[in-house]
Amino acid sequence: MQKTVAVLLADGFEEGEAVVFIDVVRRSGMQVDVLACKDDVVMKTYFGTRISTDFTLADKFEQDYDAVMMPGGPEGTDNLTSNPMVIEFLKRHIDAGKYICALCSSPAKVLGKHGLLEGKHFTTGSGLETLVEKGEYLDRKVVVDGNFITGKGLGVSFDFALTVAQTLRTDDPDHILWQADHIYYEGWPESVERIEA
């Protein structure tokens, strides 16, 4: 069965992080639903790129996904973390053991602020780790700890997206290695810290 991934976007999100992730995960053979965490699908991005989503979060709130992803962006993560529907959606997926994939400021400002990283190793944008009271920070590009996958920021977007894709596509991990080679991306998966249980 095809894996499904929800990408949560709020006004002010970092568009580069979102677009790289969506591209890599879709080309890896998964269904990606891009969800606006507001009442309409036309988004305001961090740097003014015109982007629209597939649906609103309200449209797909009852659907269960194999993974949920959030990019960074200072205003975007502020808007995610202050949205009760986003937090409820995340908690439901965490409780179900689904993958939670957070990049740049979203590990600290969304997951950390709500105590959702307790007992987990994580990475986030430099300096933001001080916002997280529960969780163990690692200064690595990408960290995988159980069902949590976190990344530092825009510069590691490919490492992050390929890691999510490889983690989900256990049926064909060689396909993800091929995808990395196909786009001439080097240095991965050596850039990833995987925490063994």
Automatic annotation (TrEMBL):
Residues 3-165 form the DJ-1/PfpI domain. One of its GO terms (cellular component) is cytoplasm. Pfam families: DJ-1_PfpI. InterPro entries: Class_I_gatase-like, DJ-1/PfpI, Prot/Nucl_acid_deglycase. It comes from the Bacteria. This is Thiamine biosynthesis protein ThiJ. It comes from Vibrio hepatarius.
